[in-house]
Specification:
The protein is about 40% helix and about 20% strand. By secondary structure, the chain is an alpha/beta fold. The structure holds 5'-deoxyadenosine and iron/sulfur cluster.
C-alpha cells in the first residue's frame, strides 16, 4: 500500500495524444494520493517525463532534460527523477546505465504501478539523503516496471489487458474538481499489431488490446456528468476496435442481438461480426445514442484498411459524430508502402478516401468532410519518382492538414535493422519542404472554400491573438498536465478574462466539427459575457479565411 504523500510533482509530456491521456490518468491517480502538481520543474520534489520514441528528436529532448536534472541533483540529493512511457520501455536498463540520474522507469503498459514505484523511490531516496547526501546522489534502489518481451505472449495478454484496464478504470472523474474543461480523450484500444517497419509503437505499447464497451461508455457518461461535451476516442488503429464478448447468451439460452446493431436505416456490412461482437461501428453508435450529452464525438487515428461502410453509415447518420477523419497514408508510392509493411496499397487508399467523400462530404448541409494525414519523407531508397507520387497523393487527397515527418530510423524496428538510412538529410529536408508547400496551398484553398458557409462552432476560449493582447498566452506542452488537454483550456483562463476585459470586443476561438479553427468577436460587455460562450456550441458565418484559420461572425 502506498502512503499519503505531500510531495510536489512536475510532469512533462512528450509526443502523442495517447501520452497526454496517460499523463492525465497518472496525474489523477497521484493527486488522489496527496501529491501536488507544479508547473515549475525547479520547485518539484519529483520530476517525471512521459516520453515518446516515435522519432529521435522527441527522445533527444528528454536526454537534454535529464542532463539538466543531473546538475540539479547535486543541490537536491533527494530529488526523484522518473522516465515514463515509450523511452523507458524501449531503452530499458540501458537508460539507467547511461543516465544514473534516473531513479524510476515505467513503461506505458505498466503505469498503474506508478504510485507504488514512486512511493518506494521517494522513501529510499529520503532515507539515503538523511544519512548521507553523497550516497543519495549516486545511488537509489531503482524502481523499474517494464513489460519487456512479455508484451506479445498470448498467455499473458489477458493479464496485461486487466492491468492496462485498471489505469483507465481508475480515472479520477469528479464533478467537484471540474476545472472548466469541456473536452476529453477516452482510450478504446491500447497497443498496435501492424508492425509498420519504421515504427516503434508495436514494440513499446505492445499487442492490441480492446477495452470492454461498457467500460468505455461508463467512462464517457461520467465525463459528461462533469460538463464534458467533446470526446475523442483514442487508438493507434482506432477503427480496428472490436470487442468479443465472452458470451451473449442469456440464462435461458437465447442469444441477445447486440444493442445498436441495426443503425437507423442502414445495414451492417460486416458479415463476420456475430451478435456477441462489438465492432467500431457498434461502439460509435452506442456512444452516440447512450450519451447524447456528448455533442462532439471524434476518433484518432484511423487505419486505411478494413474500414467498412458500416462505420461510414453510422458517422453519416449520427449528427454528433464529427466529419473529420485522420487517416495517414505515409507515402504515395506502392513500392514504399510495401517496404513500410503498411498492409495496403495506394489503390485501396484512394478507394477509401473516395468512399469517405461519397458518404460524408455534405457541404450543402454545412458538413463538408475534412481529412487529415501523415506522410514520412525520405524512407530508405525513396526516389524522386516515389516522391513525385507522394506529391500527387497530397493533391488527390486534399487533406485539411497533413503532418509531414522526415524518416527517423528507430532502433529495434525492422527498417532500422535491415535497411540502411540512405537518403541524405538535405534531400529529406527538401522533399519535406516541397510537400509542405503543396499542403499549405491545399489547406488555404480548403479554407477559402468555407467562406459564406455557416457552421456550428465549439467555443474553446480566447483566440491566440486575444491571449497575446493580454499577455496570458499558454504554451502548449509547457509542462504540467492540465494546462491544455484535448485543446481545451481550463477555468483559470476564463477567470483572467473576467478581470482583464479591455476594448469593445473580445476575440474567441473555436472549432467546426470538421476541426477547422474559427475566430470570431463577441461584445466585451453586454447581455452575455464572453465567458458564457466558452464550452458552448454557437453558430457562425464565415466571412474570411487565412491559411487554416477562418474568421466568422455569430448568426
Ligand atoms: N520516422 C518518421 N516518422 C515516423 N512516424 C512513425 N514512425 C516514424 C519514424 N520512424 C510517423 C508516422 C505516424 C506518425 C504518428 O509518426 O507518420 O503516422
Ligand atoms: Fe505504428 Fe503502423 Fe501501428 Fe501506426 S499502424 S502505430 S504507424 S505500426
Amino acid at each position: 500500500m502506498t502512503n499519503k504523500s505531500t510531495k510536489s510533482v512536475y510532469l512533462e509530456t512528450f509526443g502523442c495524444q495517447m501520452n497526454e491521456l496517460d499523463s492525465e490518468l497518472v496525474a489523477g491517480s497521484l493527486g488522489a494520493l496527496g501529491y501536488q502538481f507544479t508547473s515549475q520543474a525547479d520547485q518539484a520534489d519529483i520530476v517525471l517525463y512521459n516520453t515518446c520514441s516515435v522519432r529521435e528528436r522527441a527522445e533527444q529532448k528528454v536526454w537534454s532534460r535529464l542532463g539538466e536534472m543531473k546538475v540539479r541533483k547535486n543541490n537536491q540529493p533527494d530529488l526523484v527523477v522518473g522516465v515514463l512511457g515509450c523511452m523507458a520501455e524501449r531503452d530499458g536498463k540501458d537508460l539507467i546505465a547511461r543516465m544514473p540520474v534516473v531513479d524510476l522507469m515505467c513503461g506505458p503498459a505498466e503505469l498503474d504501478k506508478l504510485p507504488e514505484l514512486l512511493d518506494n523511490a521517494v522513501r529510499t531516496k529520503s532515507s539515503l539523503a538523511v544519512n548521507d547526501p553523497e550516497i543519495a546522489i549516486r545511488r537509489s534502489a531503482k524502481q523499474v516496471a517494464l513489460q519487456g518481451n512479455a508484451s506479445r505472449r498470448s498467455s499473458t495478454l489477458a493479464a496485461a489487458g486487466d492491468s492496462l484496464e485498471s489505469l483507465d478504470l481508475g480515472r479520477m472523474i469528479s464533478p467537484v474538481d471540474f476545472d472548466g474543461r469541456r473536452s476529453a480523450y477516452v482510450r478504446i484500444t491500447r497497443g498496435c499489431n501492424k508492425f509498420c517497419t519504421y515504427c516503434v509503437v508495436p514494440h513499446t505499447r505492445g499487442a492490441e488490446i480492446h477495452r470492454p464497451p461498457q467500460h468505455i461508455i461508463d467512462e464517457i457518461k461520467a465525463l459528461a456528468d462533469t460538463g464534458i461535451i467533446e470526446i475523442t476516442l483514442l487508438g493507434q488503429t482506432v477503427n480496428h476496435y472490436r470487442f468479443e464478448h465472452d458470451s451473449a447468451v442469456t440464462l435461458d439460452g437465447i442469444v441477445q442481438p447486440q444493442k445498436g446493431r441495426t443503425y437507423k436505416g442502414s445495414h451492417n456490412r460486416d458479415a463476420f461480426a456475430g451478435a456477441n461482437t462489438t465492432t467500431f461501428a457498434d461502439l460509435l453508435y452506442r456512444i452516440h445514442e447512450e450519451v447524447p450529452q456528448i455533442k462532439r464525438l471524434r476518433f484518432l487515428t484511423s487505419y486505411p484498411r478494413d474500414f467498412g461502410d458500416d462505420v461510414l453509415q453510422v458517422i453519416r447518420d449520427c449528427p454528433r459524430i464529427c466529419r473529420f477523419i485522420h487517416v495517414p497514408a505515409q507515402t504515395g508510392s506502392n513500392r514504399m508502402l510495401k517496404m513500410m509493411n503498411r498492409g495496403h496499397n495506394i489503390e485501396e487508399y484512394d478507394e477509401f478516401i473516395g468512399r469517405c467523400n461519397e458518404f460524408l462530404h455534405q457541404p450543402e448541409i454545412g458538413r463538408p468532410l475534412m481529412l487529415g494525414g501523415d506522410i514520412i519523407v525520405g524512407f530508405p531508397t525513396e526516389t524522386e519518382e516515389d516522391h513525385e507520387l507522394t506529391k500527387q497523393l497530397l493533391i488527390r487527397s486534399r487533406y485539411k492538414n497533413c503532418f509531414i515527418f522526415k524518416y527517423s530510423p528507430r532502433p529495434g524496428t525492422v527498417s532500422y535493422d535491415k535497411i540502411p538510412d540512405d537518403i541524405p538529410d538535405a534531400v529529406k529536408k527538401r522533399r519535406n519542404n516541397e510537400l509542405l508547400m503543396i499542403q499549405t496551398d491545399i489547406s488555404d484553398s480548403i479554407a477559402q472554400d468555407q467562406i459564406g458557409g455557416e457552421f456550428d462552432i465549439f467555443v474553446e476560449g480566447l483566440s491566440r491573438h486575444e491571449h497575446k493582447k493580454r499577455g496570458t498566452d499558454v504554451k502548449p506542452g509547457s509542462g504540467m498536465v492540465g494546462i491544455t488537454i484535448g485543446g481545451a483550456e481550463p477555468q483559470a483562463q476564463i477567470a483572467v478574462l473576467d478581470a482583464e476585459i479591455q476594448g469593445p470586443t473580445v476575440q474567441l476561438s473555436g472549432r467546426t466539427d470538421g476541426d477547422l479553427i474559427v475566430f470570431f468577436d463577441v461584445p466585451a460587455v453586454g447581455l452575455q459575457s464572453p465567458n458564457d460562450y466558452i464550452g458552448k456550441i454557437v453558430r457562425a458565418k464565415i466571412n474570411a479565411a487565412d491559411k487554416l484559420t477562418l474568421a466568422g461572425e455569430l448568426v
